[in-house]
Every structure is written in structure tokens, then in C-alpha cells.
Amino acid sequence: MPGKKIKGKIIIISSPSGGGKTSICRGLLRRNKDWRFSVSATTRPKRKNERHGREYLFMEYAEFREHAGRGYFAEWCQVHRYYYGTPRKQLEDTLYKGGIILLDVDVKGAAKLKKAYPEAATVFILPPSKTELRKRLKRRGTEDDKHFKIRQKRALSEMKLYRKFEYTIVNKNLNTAVREVEMIIKTLHCRKNNLDLEQINRIVG
Questions:
Q1: Which of 11, 10, 20, 36 is nearest to 169 (CA)?
Q2: Is-contact 104 25, C-beta < 8 A?
Q3: pLDDT tens digits for range 189-205
Q4: pTM for the structure as a whole
Q5: Which among 142, 147, 124, 161 is positioned nearest to 20, based on CA atoms?
Q6: Considering only CA atoms, which of 134, 104, 113, 136 is closest in space to residue 35?
Q7: Regarding the domain with residue range 9-204, which homologous superfamily does it belong to in the CATH classification?
Q8: Nearest by Cα to 88 from 122, 57, 43
């Protein structure tokens, strides 16, 4: 949307599988009813207790590729065996209307989104240890041993990418992690590129 003034905030929350980014996003939304969540699209099968339009927009491969080809997604990529994408419209509507929107994405998606929206804030969630990461992944019980090992190897590799993010939170206690991320978001107006420069110039002369 060239020419429009950016009023809102994009918050990119990323982590390796088992880091807890989805649980943190849910906690943030419970505490801040006016914040929005960007529902990603995916070609992976729906898990038990998931609902189309709440956790994800579940799509067939052909439908996903069609949307990708016509610019429906702000970013999309393949993770493990499936495709994931961030719909553009809700993201930009919220951004230009002055709202706050949370994005729960993997590290690939985070990098693409930051490039497309450099004003976005990036937060990386780390598990407290490699042992705890493995426990969290195992508790899911959604994969056979072969794919579990692939996911675990990828997660351990992605943990090293925290340096590429502006903020890093260690998710040892979920409630504490939620409050820490919330504090980051609520103080973003103090970032230099978010300041009201007219007001600042009146103060400093």
C-alpha cells in the first residue's frame, strides 16, 4: 500500500518447533482483546481439536499454489513436508488502521516478513534447554519416529538463529514469557523509528 501512513504494529513471533510461540500468542490475545492474530494458511492435515480459520486456513496443495501465484500471501515457504503462507490482506488492513497484529511463523517465514515489512518487530522464543525441547516435541505425539527425528534436528538447528531477531525470550514459564513479550510490544512506541518526531522536535528544539 504505497503512500499510506503506517499506524499499526506487526509483531513477528518465531521459535523452533516446541519453543512455545503458539501458546504465547494465545496468552497475549487473552490478555489483549483488541490485538489481532494473523491466521496462516497451510497444506498440512488438520490435527485433532483444530478448526479451519482458527489455528490455520487449511488448503489443498493446488489451492495453495493458486493463491501463491496471484499474490495472496505476504510470504510463503515449505516447512518439513508442507507449505505455509501468511495472507496479505488482514496483515496490511491491521497495519494501516493502527492495530497490533501477531504472527506465529517459523524462522523462514520470519525472515521473509521482516524483509517485506522492515518496521515489524521480531521476537524469538527459545526453550529453556535442549532436553525440554525434546520433551515438548515428544508430548505432541503427532509424528512417527522418522519424522520426529527430522523435526528435532531442524529445531535444534533453528535455535542458533536467535541472533537474527531483535528480541529473545527464554520460555521456561509460559505466564512469565507471555508477560515479557507483552512488555516488549507495549514499549515499541519508544523505538526510535516509532517516535512522534514532531513532538520530539518541539521538546528538544
A1: 20
A2: yes
A3: 777 565 565 665 666 75
A4: 0.84
A5: 124
A6: 104
A7: P-loop containing nucleotide triphosphate hydrolases (3.40.50.300)
A8: 57
